[in-house]
Amino acid sequence: MKRLGILTGGGDAPGLNAVIRAAVKTAIYQYGCEVIGIRDGYDGFIDEKGIVPLGIRDVRGILPRGGTILGAANRGNPFARKVVRDGREVTIDVSDEIVKGIERLGLDALLVLGGDGTLHIAHELYEKGVPIIGVPKTIDNDIGGTDITFGFDTALTTATEAIDRLHTTAESHHRVMVLELMGRDSGFIALHAGVAGGADVILIPEIPFKFESVVAKVRQRVENGMLFSILAVSEGAKPIGGTQVFSRGGDEVFVPRLGGISQVVGEYIEKQGFETRVTVLGHLQRGGTPTPFDRWLATRYGSAAVRVAAGGRFDRMVALRSGEVIDIPLGEAIAVPKRVNVDGDAVITARNMGIFFGDE
């Protein structure tokens, strides 16, 4: 292995820079390998300024930094790229250009740091002959085959701190506080932060809820002398028989943008006579300094990915299982997205503690 490429795709997540740093250091110190960074996801192979060398000096000091020094693009699908031709916006497949760009650079391996969408693209590129190694990144923790993805712990910490802060003002003013958290189809952030922060109600995509049941829980608390309530709500939560709430539609390039379920829930509770406030945490969950755990995990992933590449094992993804970093087939990792086990001990523990999921 003489030349290694690295790109970061999809939304940013705390820990990306730690992966880049570990990969660069391992490649150079252990294998004497040249490392090339690709800017803004797969788009970097098309952009003239999208390729940058990465040496030891380039990764110095980036371990505690959030975001990614390489940039990211969650709309950079080379199999469905939007361009303007003859004054019209059309979608084209530029994956062959990406493959040619990789061949032109003489990459012996390409590390792809991304979530479900980015890794699906990576798997398709492997089928076109690209030597791919995947690294699981997402704050939603929804990638299969691994116990945890880097970025999740930092987002969880931010969400839990938000619940802690809402507790004090909710109790002071006897209000219902509804906190909307990220989680398109997986409710890990809301579940873990809700339990860690002492939420009274947790609404997640895996457990459709009833509006009237949520209000009944709030009313029960008031009747028992607890004049405030905290609701942790995944952005992908939906009522029984209903649909998710979107702030923007989607097409073959843009995924629909979730957002607004917390407002719907808050307005319903308010109409039942309980003063309610809604907070949307949004991209605060993506930003900031990664936690020590995410730095530790990301560092292990970055170094392991280089070792897998050096061993010539492509179309693989590094993963954490039972405390050990291993590598698994990329196809296995993306086959079934990870979801909250509604019958697992985490949900059972929450229910045992009196936390309500709105389905009763």
Secondary structure topology:
Elements: E1 3-8, H1 16-31, E2 34-38, E3 51-53, E4 81-85, E5 88-92, H2 95-105, E6 109-114, H3 116-126, E7 132-136, H4 152-173, E8 176-181, H5 188-197, E9 201-203, H6 211-223, E10 229-234, E11 246-248, E12 257-258, H7 261-271, E13 276-280, H8 292-310, E14 316-321, E15 324-329, H9 330-335, H10 345-352
Parallel strand pairs: 1-2, 1-6, 6-7, 7-14, 8-10, 8-13, 9-10
Antiparallel strand pairs: 2-3, 4-5, 11-12, 14-15
Helix pairs in contact: 1-8, 4-5
Describe the 3D structure.
The structure is a single chain. Helix 1 (16-31) packs across helix 8 (292-310). This protein has two domains: 3-150 and 290-335, Rossmann fold (3-Layer(aba) Sandwich); 153-286, Phosphofructokinase domain (Rossmann fold, 3-Layer(aba) Sandwich), CATH 3.40.50.460. It is an alpha/beta fold and 360 residues long. The chain is built from ten helices and 15 strands. The protein starts with a strand and ends in an 8-residue tail after the last helix. It is elongated and about 70 Å long. The chain has a seven-stranded mixed β-sheet, sandwiched between helices. A hairpin with a 2-residue loop joins strand 4 and strand 5 (88-92). Helices cover 35% and strands 20% of the residues. 48% of the residues are buried.
